[in-house]
Amino acid sequence: MADLVKKMPVKDAENQLKFLDKRAALPVLKLLKSAAASAVHNFNLSADNLFISNIFVDGGPMLKRFRPRAFGRAAAIQKKTSHLTLILEEKTPTARKMKTKTKTKVAVKEIQGGGEKPAAPKYETPKEIKPARKLGGFTRRIFRRKAIG
User: In 10 A of CB 57, how many CB atoms?
Assistant: First the structure.
């Protein structure tokens, strides 16, 4: 499925994935739209100038679950996940104009005061010693029973 849209322009790949009747088409389409929007917003690239240079699917973590089987046994089931990697490039390279942030100077006012305040004395609070906890609940019921001899 990933090989279908490899080396395609972004717009053509979107159209191909919209009408593809496969379950994996929706997550790939979502990733493609997100990558194109990020390229336009973060790097000031034109969406019409982008194409998919590489796309591949790697195995992700497996969720291990169990199904009950005959005679009290359990059979392991692996719910497999995958990692999808998509790399976009420009057809014709353009000079990138990165957004630059201007630094602003913050005016700092110095306040002349009467001096530093004396630090308040630190008091340590004594820790309370708790009495030993008695056995309760389930433990008390077990050890209360008489041994049968």
Answer: 15
Domain holding 43: CATH number?
3.90.470.10
Task: Note the pLDDT tens digit of each residue in 1-40.
Answer: 899 999 999 999 999 999 999 999 999 999 999 999 999 9
Q: Cα(101)–Cα(24) distance, rounded to whole angstroms?
A: 39
Whether 132 is in a domain gets the answer no
* CB 122 within 8 Å of CB 83: no
* Residue numbers of the domain that contains 14: 2-90
Domain count for the chain, please give it: 1
**How do residues 77-131 score in pLDDT, each as one tens digit?**
999 999 999 999 999 988 765 556 677 777 767 777 666 666 777 777 777 887 7
Closest CA to 14 of 94, 92, 86, 91: 86
